[in-house]
Amino acid sequence: MIFNKDTAEKTAELLLQINAIKLNPGNPFTWASGWKSPIYCDNRLILSFPAIRNYVRDEFSKNIEKQFGKPDVIAGVATGAIGIGMLVAESMGLPFVYVRPEPKKHGRQNQVEGFLQKGQSVVIIEDLISTGNSSLLAVDGLREAGAVIKGMAAIFTYGFDVADNNFKDAKIDLYTLSNYQNLLNLAVAKKYITENEEQTLREWNVSPSTWSI
């Protein structure tokens, strides 16, 4: 679920402007999973654009407090959300930790890095939601450390049904700055893509694991 429509449209436009989101229906990308995809999202680029990273920080900060209330701690999911999560924590005047999808294989074998007390409430920052599996592994790690999860806030989600079901099963409220639906609407309106390309992108979103051109 998006925080609000205005933020969703503005965020989508900014991500397209800096090529954090690339749309290429005619020459699909290949994800690490092997899926063919007409879209590629790299939200880490946001950190290289001060005005945009500040916008994302501020939208997260005000909407997190509005939606979840002020938590005790902000957690960023490694590695993509560490930078923006730390900026949000700084803006809100809160402690910051980051969490891996699984514990380290060596040393102290930590999954959560930073100071976290049992019983503290946490809002998790994520950069991108696809199936939600890796994000929810981070949730499990924080719960194992004794955190009380108030919810997760992400920059963007592809809006897959499998992700919605995974978050529902895990009883985690997920809110995002933008999503696939708002992205496509904006991309057509601003002529980043044609209506035919929009149709291809919508078909992919229905069944990404089996889609091909």
TrEMBL record:
<keyword id="KW-0808">Transferase</keyword>
<comment type="similarity">
    <text>Belongs to the purine/pyrimidine phosphoribosyltransferase family. PyrE subfamily.</text>
</comment>
<feature type="binding site">
    <location>
        <position position="106"/>
    </location>
    <ligand>
        <name>5-phospho-alpha-D-ribose 1-diphosphate</name>
    </ligand>
</feature>
<comment type="pathway">
    <text>Pyrimidine metabolism; UMP biosynthesis via de novo pathway; UMP from orotate: step 1/2.</text>
</comment>
<dbReference type="GO" id="GO:0019856">
    <property type="term" value="P:pyrimidine nucleobase biosynthetic process"/>
</dbReference>
<feature type="binding site" description="in other chain">
    <location>
        <begin position="126"/>
        <end position="134"/>
    </location>
    <ligand>
        <name>5-phospho-alpha-D-ribose 1-diphosphate</name>
    </ligand>
</feature>
<feature type="binding site">
    <location>
        <position position="130"/>
    </location>
    <ligand>
        <name>orotate</name>
    </ligand>
</feature>
<dbReference type="Pfam" id="PF00156">
    <property type="entry name" value="Pribosyltran"/>
</dbReference>
<dbReference type="InterPro" id="IPR029057">
    <property type="entry name" value="PRTase-like"/>
</dbReference>
<protein>
    <recommendedName>
        <fullName>Orotate phosphoribosyltransferase</fullName>
        <ecNumber>2.4.2.10</ecNumber>
    </recommendedName>
</protein>
<dbReference type="InterPro" id="IPR000836">
    <property type="entry name" value="PRTase_dom"/>
</dbReference>
<comment type="function">
    <text>Catalyzes the transfer of a ribosyl phosphate group from 5-phosphoribose 1-diphosphate to orotate, leading to the formation of orotidine monophosphate (OMP).</text>
</comment>
<keyword id="KW-0460">Magnesium</keyword>
<feature type="domain" description="Phosphoribosyltransferase">
    <location>
        <begin position="58"/>
        <end position="153"/>
    </location>
</feature>
<feature type="binding site">
    <location>
        <position position="100"/>
    </location>
    <ligand>
        <name>5-phospho-alpha-D-ribose 1-diphosphate</name>
    </ligand>
</feature>
<keyword id="KW-0328">Glycosyltransferase</keyword>
<dbReference type="GO" id="GO:0044205">
    <property type="term" value="P:'de novo' UMP biosynthetic process"/>
</dbReference>
<feature type="binding site">
    <location>
        <position position="104"/>
    </location>
    <ligand>
        <name>5-phospho-alpha-D-ribose 1-diphosphate</name>
    </ligand>
</feature>
<dbReference type="GO" id="GO:0004588">
    <property type="term" value="F:orotate phosphoribosyltransferase activity"/>
</dbReference>
<dbReference type="GO" id="GO:0000287">
    <property type="term" value="F:magnesium ion binding"/>
</dbReference>
<dbReference type="InterPro" id="IPR004467">
    <property type="entry name" value="Or_phspho_trans_dom"/>
</dbReference>
<keyword id="KW-0665">Pyrimidine biosynthesis</keyword>
<comment type="subunit">
    <text>Homodimer.</text>
</comment>
<dbReference type="InterPro" id="IPR023031">
    <property type="entry name" value="OPRT"/>
</dbReference>
